Amino acid sequence: MGKPHIGVMGSAAPSFPRDQMQRLQEIAGQLGRAIAAQHGILVIGSTGGLPGMVFEAVRNAGGLTVEISPANSAQEHRAHDTTADTRADVRIYTGFGYKGRNVINIRTSDIVIIFGGSVGTLNEFTIAYDEGKIIGVLEGTGGVADAVRSVIQFCNKPTQAQVVFERDPARLLQACLALLNTNAPPPP
Known about the structure:
Helices cover 46% and strands 19% of the residues. By secondary structure, the protein is of the alpha/beta class.
């Protein structure tokens, strides 16, 4: 099996009090360093916020990054995104808008990490859940991450998804990678 593709889905524009943002930045740093240490390939929607913080930590730790853009070209992307053109190692232009981009985010990821989040993150979670992905939920980070248990219970839909709940980013990633390795087909 190649390097795991680890998608981080979360609040693009979090608006938490300053002390909470500092804590979330620390969590993002821990998660990003753990992804890089495990030789994971980070996948995010071309965004800032919580995924952007993880992105910066992965890059600072020498990890590989992929951004999935809702735009159909570099020109359209630059018109709507203030991030630098050279930010990601790889940027994929989908031309599918945000909801279509979310499907690509999930399908590109072997593991999906839910970190905080609002409506877009809820959309990404439901796609991942429906498609039977390994999903890691960073509890205690607010928003969707803290509501996922209720969403699963409310929807009561059986899927092949494997959902792991954890407050510690490194332990969460380890548990998700263990599931990925358990589910991997044997080598030919």
